[in-house]
Amino acid sequence: MNTILHITKSEQWEQAKNLGSYRGDTLDSEGFIHCSTAAQVIWVANRFFVNQKDLVILCIDSEQVKAEIRYEAAEVDNLFPHIYGELNIDAVFQVVDFEAGEDGFFVLPKEVISLE
Q1: Matching InterPro entries, A to Z (predicted)?
Q2: Which of 57, 82, 86, 114 is the most exposed place for a label (fewest CB within 10 A)?
């Protein structure tokens, strides 16, 4: 299994479960849902989510994703997975609470480390 990760608000994930699919807020604006590998998730979190609350990490089995996945360059030297289209929720095999430390920054949760 090839796991990719996506950070989102817990409220958005709850809504997605009721709808049967997840549409990241960037799908409409940028045409894809941002995802990361485990090695990338902390860089993303500490760049774009500092001090945010009520976040979760969606652990996604890329082999179960029905939409197209492209690995594309971002602002760093490696490739980030992007899902082009809605994410079918049955591709999500685990949801991990993602809380910042007292300083507002994140560390990788043990549940995600074990996926590496």
Answers
A1: DUF952
A2: 114
Q: What is the pTM for the complete model shown?
A: 0.90
**How many domains is the chain partitioned into structurally?**
1
Q: Is 115 within a domain?
A: no
Q: Do the domain assignments include residue 53?
A: yes
Cβ atoms of 27 and 85 within 8 Å: the answer is: yes
Give the pLDDT confidence score for residue 110 in this predicted structure: 87
Please report, for residues 4, 13, 59, 108, the alpha-carbon distance to residue 99 in angstroms, rounded to integers and kept in the order given.
19, 15, 16, 10
The strand pairing partners of 70, in sequence order, are 82
∠ Cα 65 96 3 (to 5°): 35
Instruction: Determine which helix (DSSP H) or strand (DSSP E) holds 87, and give its type and residue range.
Output: strand 87-88
Under a CB-based contact definition with an 8 Å cutoff, are residues 43 and 24 in contact? no
Report residue 74: phi and psi, to 5°.
-120, -140
